[in-house]
Design goal:
- By secondary structure, this protein is mostly helical.
- The protein is built from 6 helices and no strands.
Length: about 190
């Protein structure tokens, strides 16, 4: 508060504060200001002391390992990258859950292709940008990795393994389409 403000204050009908009242108000205001300065001075002193201690601790650490700061920063970057990789892996696993694969091997291969594509996490953190387009491309390029939807008839429109020309005369008859493992199992270990 400034003295000029109090001296120019009009109390009504041209009446001003007497000089003694202005002096009393300024003295009380000065006490309040000094009381507020004490904690600030204490905090400033503490801050300077802590900064000095931090600088001394950093010098000691540099004495033990001059590259400690760079190593700590690298460890932090590595941890953040590992967390991001784990989040991406979980998103890929969750996104692939809505697809039906012919085998675990096929699922792992598709997961590897998705991971290799380096898709970025969406802002919501719950999906991968471009995943649906990538999956359409993968399905077009690798249709045998995905189980066909059953559209009625034998094998849902796909020919069974035996009908595709791989069944030898006298071998076990394969009734419906299946995985390569099932076809080999039926051929090697007939049920007859």
């Amino acid at each position: 508060m400034k003295r000029e403000f109090l001296e120019g204050l009009d109390l009504g009908e041209g009446v001003k504060l007497p000089k003694s009242a202005v002096d009393a108000i300024m003295a009380e205001n000065g006490k309040d200001i000094e009381a507020a300065k004490a904690p600030i001075a204490t905090l400033t002193t503490e801050k300077e002391g802590l900064q000095t201690r931090l600088a001394e601790a950093n010098k000691k650490l540099e004495g033990y390992d001059p590259e400690w700061k760079a190593k700590a920063e690298q460890a932090d970057r590595d941890a953040q990258a590992k967390i991001a990789e784990m989040q991406t892996d979980m998103l890929i696993r969750d996104a692939l859950a809505k697809y039906t694969f012919t085998s675990t091997f096929a699922k792992d291969g598709v997961a590897g292709k998705v991971k290799q594509a380096g898709l970025k996490m969406a802002e919501d953190g719950k999906s991968l940008m471009g995943f649906d387009d990538l999956m359409k491309t993968i399905q077009e390029q690798n249709p045998d990795a995905f189980k066909a939807e059953d559209k009625g008839g034998a094998g849902g429109g796909k020919l069974p393994f035996g009908v595709a020309g791989t069944q030898k005369p006298g071998a076990a008859k394969i009734e419906e389409a299946g995985t390569l493992r099932e076809a080999l199992g039926a051929a090697l270990f007939p049920k007859n």
